[in-house]
Amino acid sequence: MNKRTLLLVAGVLCIATQGMAQFFMPPITGLSTTKPGTLTAADGTVYENCKVRSLVMNGAQINRVNIMTAEGEKLKFKAEDVASMQYPPSELAKFDQAMEATTSVQSMFNTDFDAVLDREIIYYEANSSPRGRGKTVLMQLVNPGFESKIAVFNDPWAGETMSVGVAGMTLAGGLEKSYYVRKDGEMIKVQKKGYGKMFDQLFADCPRMAEEYPNPQWKNFATHVFAYDQWCE
After folding, report:
1. CA nearest 28: which of 110, 112, 101?
2. What is the pTM of this model?
3. What is the rounded distance in angstroms from the CA atom of residue 1 to the CA atom of residue 44?
4. SS3 helix, strand, coil % of the chain, rounded to 5?
5. Helices (H), 17-168
6. N or C end: fewer C-beta atoms under 10 angstroms in the chain?
7. Tens digit of pLDDT for each residue in 118-156?
8. Dihedral sign for Cα atoms in the order 95, 58, 184, 204
9. Which pLDDT score, from 0 to 100, does residue 59 have?
10. Distances (CA, A) of 146 to 2, 24, 52, 61
């Protein structure tokens, strides 16, 4: 069973208070420079067991990456020269994410602290930058395992939903207000505001979606993407 399948199974087993739900992987910024990963170049060359030496980033999007191969060769890549990357997060990044998870309304009852710390891989894929006039960047994929039809990427500039107070404590909303979505090769921004209309546009080619979700809500966006991946052609 590969890692994406494991992530998919883990997501399916997450149970919300009102039934089965699917969640996006929380974005993590910070790749390990000590643990090896895999980089697939745009020309199809696969570099396995290579380590990240340095990154040039814009927000959480990668513009350049320098690696050292398993053979000790130092290579430099612009984002347009890379198809995808799969790398472990740094220990600090995992710890920061675990801290955030403990203050998230959405995840406080269903997040395993140890599982967050044990998260093994961050996935990046090359896309045309939403802000870069056609420039290619590497964006973090947040729905690995159910991205075959709709790939959802972290929006580094998205805010989170409003914080609320519970028993005298202020807890973060934990839900991003927007994501970038790639469907049929087109990149679009999907956001909480106006999601009802965007739902109709995004899932129009699958009538079952409208039948199953007559009143779509933003908090269930990940579930909608998962359902579309399973039901629709």
Report:
1. 101
2. 0.77
3. 23
4. 25, 35, 40
5. 91-101, 113-117
6. C
7. 457 899 999 998 876 778 999 999 999 899 999 999 998
8. positive
9. 75
10. 13, 10, 26, 21
Concatenated DSSP letters of 17-30:
TTEE---PPPP---
190: its two tokens: 């999907």
Of 84, 90, 78, the residue nearest 47 (C-alpha): 84
- Six-digit token string for 3: 């890692």
Extract the tokens encoding 184: 């049929």
Alpha helices (H) in the chain, listed in sequence order:
3-12, 91-101, 113-117, 195-202, 207-212, 221-231
Q: What pLDDT score was predicted for residue 175?
A: 64
Structure tokens at 72: 């000790």
Report pLDDT digits (tens) over 155-169. Answer: 988 765 433 333 333
Pairwise pLDDT comparison (102 vs 51), residue with the higher score: 51
Euclidean distance between CA atoms 32 and 85, whole angstroms:
13
Question: Which residue type occupies 228?
Answer: Y
Alpha-carbon distance of 170 to 195, in angstroms, equals 26
Six token digits for residue 9: 């199974």
